[in-house]
User: What shape does this take?
Amino acid sequence: MKSAVSYLFSLIVSVMLVFTLIGAVGSLTANININEDKFHTLAADNDLSGKTRAQLDKYFSSRYNSTGIPADVYMDAIDEAYLDRVINEYIDSGFNALRTGNDISVNVSNKKLEGSIDQFFVESADSANAKIDDRFEQKLDAAKESAYAVIMEYCDAYKFNSLKKHGVLDKLTPLFNRLDLIVIAFTVASALLMLLLLVINIKSKPVTMFWIGVSSLITGIIAGVPSGFLLATRYFERFTIKQPQVYTAYTSVMKQYTNAFLSAAICGAAAGICFIIVYRTVISKNKTVAPTRV
Assistant: This one.
């Protein structure tokens, strides 16, 4: 009778352990992979600056008929180093907004770009014998402001501005700032449940390894199967996002997290199998340990 009670309580605790382990793995994976450094690395590895420059070239070329300003006026002054700086500033400012709730602020000033626009307008005015008056200055300022607005939109590959504008970042701030505590809470809860399994099976301690192993194995399966499915079917590549740099930014982050989660799941499953093997080895050598039947 006592054995049946121990089995029932062990089963209940092991189910609870599965959920706490999933929480620990998920929160720890998020804590490791969702930060500025990872986003900077992904931006560089996936050439976001190059994709952004190509899209800016396409945009300014398409606007030539309405503005009369050749794309080269802009693009000769917009190199990938400049775009790298702006993209990375958006990442830093976005995460700062996520942590503090502050507004997103990025410096997109480009003296070379402003000089190129100035030169084009002056040369156009000279060739048309037009006066450089207040109206001329207004058009010049409007051209610069428009160029900067487009650059800001295209360089915000992770769309931190939109997320901030729609209140998403503000809602995520409390959760993001408590991510360390969430990891600790799930880890401590998992450790306590393992300790409770030991107490329940105090008269047959090796059985604890069996229950921990089963919980770890199930955790690995529950976390690993969906992750493996998403990656194997290239699910994230089905997203329909028009701007290539935005598409690449979001899909690369999702793939990175899913890959990391899958790796953790595989490790958890492997650890579970090891615990079960050790348990089977112990009971085969120690006849005083009653095997657990499932």
The longest helix spans residues 244-285.
